[in-house]
Amino acid sequence: MGNPKAFLYIPRKEAGYRPVQERIYDFGEVEQTLNREDRKLQASRCMDCGVPFCHWACPLGNKMPEWQDLIYKEKWQEAIDILQETNNFPEFTGRVCPAPCEKSCVLSLHEAPLTIRENEAAITELAFNEGMIKARPPRKRIAKKIAVIGSGPSGLAAAQQLNRKGYTVTVFEKDAHIGGLLRYGIPNFKLAKNVIDRRLKLMEEEGIIFSPNMEVGKNISAKELLDSFDAICIAVGAGQPRDIQAEGREMRGIYFAMDFLSQQNKQLLGETMQQEEIISAKNKHVLVIGGGDTGSDCVGTSIRQGAVKVTQIEILPQPPIGKNPETPWPYYPLILKTSSSHEEGCTRRWCLNTKAFIGKNGHVTEVLIEEVEWHREENGRMTMVSTGKTETVKADLVLLALGFLHPVHEGFLNELGVKYDGRGNIEVDKNGKTSVDKIFATGDSVMGASLVVRAIASGRKAAENIHHFFRQEQKN
What we know:
By secondary structure, this protein is an alpha/beta fold. It has 3 domains: 6-129, Alpha-helical ferredoxin (Fumarate Reductase Iron-sulfur Protein, Chain B, domain 2); 145-239 and 405-475, FAD/NAD(P)-binding domain, CATH 3.50.50.60; 243-402, FAD/NAD(P)-binding domain (3-Layer(bba) Sandwich). Helices cover 35% and strands 17% of the residues. It contains 19 helices and 15 strands. The strands form 4 sheets. The protein has a 5-stranded parallel sheet with strand order 3-2-1-4-15, sandwiched between helices. Helix 6 (76-86) crosses helix 9 and helix 7 packs antiparallel against helix 9 (116-129). The protein starts with 5 loop residues before the first helix and ends with a helix.
């Protein structure tokens, strides 16, 4: 490293967020940036550890010490080249990844890890702005056509890797715009959509064919795909939301979180929809059920839409603040996470179970909740125990952010006849192949709802599996 002792006297410095009273009135990205000199100093804090736990914790195996050193030395082109060796879309992960690499950084032992995620975003923006990231079309084409179904992070990663190997790749997307979860599931204030468009333009220049508004099983049959392509890669994500079984669930005003979030993104994209279909938090008391990142996104979106009050409840206990002995370094710590959306004004509560929805004229007005306790059994399992203490919370709009079960089975997946595992995900063998010949699967459709960084890693692996499949076919 150019400055192996920098971590001793240069403190961690984060870019921080735009002021709350400014950002809640728009959907612009909330995170700010540091200047180039400050970013160099932050990169210099890397200790170049003998055992780089950051590399170990990253699903993509990013080579953090190498490109931190290159940032410090202002060798920006070399830095972005090394970063892109392992990560197809550092501009996405640099914005939305929870950064398991930082949690495993040795400096995390002193609660001041390297700003790896911010450094990643900063170097990628600099590289785009200065023309360092360019289209990389293959030198020659292989006479094989591959269909990728789904244009989220895993589908895009698989498509790009396969295209670079010379295959002709077509990406099918059921929605009007390409991007999947990145486009419709993540709010603009976390990931501006021009960032996606910029990457898609390069991918088109590389020769990838995008086919939006093309729902497999509806606009085109699964059989047509099998007849027209040499292989299919399913990357549809885990789209089946977890529901809640409580009295009054059928009332109006209760929606799945992803319906709410995707609709807001569609409005910002200018997509048309019927007025009666629009879900709005304006002038409403909003209750978000579920304490994860999706719930947090609902909080930030509701505030921007003009909610009177936003409450977020979680059935699990409140995580510890700061440190958790049950998840020690270098593992990802299960601790209380306060997002930018929470800082904007939200009541957060834990150990609350939803018992019933109460309404008037068929529309929800209140939610009956019950306090619960969690007890650890001898085998280590946690058991939920009802306390009998109940109360009602005013709620004109209820958003269910309870996670996802598995990919949607109805439609083309059942039509293809792929097998599912015990959790309802698509079953694949060690080579990523489904039970149907020529069909592979990747991302959340295989492993369940996960992180963008894991989806990209899975997409890259799927591309390798498909390439290996054709090479073996050639040998035989």
